[in-house]
Amino acid sequence: SYVLTQPPSVSVAPGKTARITCGGNNIGSKSVHWYQQKPGQAPVLVIYYDSDRPSGIPERFSGSNSGNTATLTISRVEAGDEADYYCQVWDSSSDHRGVFGGGTKLTVL
Amino acid sequence: EVQLVESGGGLVQPGGSLRLSCAASGFTFSSYWMSWVRQAPGKGLEWVANIKQDGSEKYYVDSVKGRFTISRDNAKNSLYLQMNSLRAEDTAVYYCARSGMAAAGTFDYWGQGTLVTVSS
After folding, report:
1. Which among B50, B104, B112 has CB closest to A42?
2. What's the pLDDT tens digit per position in A31-83?
3. Beta strands in chain A (DSSP E)
4. Which residue of B lies nearest to A48 if distances are taken between CA atoms?
5. Phi then psi dihedrals of residue A52, to 5 deg
6. Which of A49, B40, B57, B80 could form a disulfide with B92 if both were Cys (CB 3.0 to 4.6 A apart)?
7. How close B120 comes to chain A (CA, Å)?
8. Chain A to chain B, count of Cβ pairs less than 8 Å apart?
């Protein structure tokens, strides 16, 4: 089955840039979606189809995907960005299953 | 406004059954794939199952195949998850999520979740 690998944690100072990676075999050939989840809340879509932003998501959030790594980039990080972030793809080679990465805890110092 | 409201969670003994429901509103329910995603306490997200617009295609994570059944009633704008032979490892918050008009869509709207606890 397809596996997505994320770093467990990323720390960044306010105003700096955070980059959260999502590794997978030839992930560049798949569409990657990113979700933000704050404690006690449901996940929220922040990036879809590698780099598109839903309405209401700040331009500070961007995404890229190439080779074996997809990246969520958060520019000018704010305290309110502190959350868990998950990448997600569909594994069409395996009965069309959804796959999530293990999640990355973003800490704003 | 898109709304997804789950219900049916609770405490159940190992081996027991539970049926979750998700009431959808604010969009044309019959036009979208729908999914269930769960999150065990303190753990990450896990996709559980999804179902095509007309119910003709259903897919499951291996760990629930043969025990869980996803279904929908487009006339009632409702999604269901019948869970049988429940195990302790099924303990989680279960989220209903809209998953696009295409098979490989994105989870663009989520419910607030319903907690299922499997314990004796």
Report:
1. B112
2. 999 999 999 999 999 999 999 999 999 999 999 999 999 999 999 999 999 99
3. 9-12, 18-23, 33-37, 44-47, 61-66, 69-74, 83-91, 97-100, 104-108
4. B106
5. -90, 145
6. B40
7. 25
8. 61
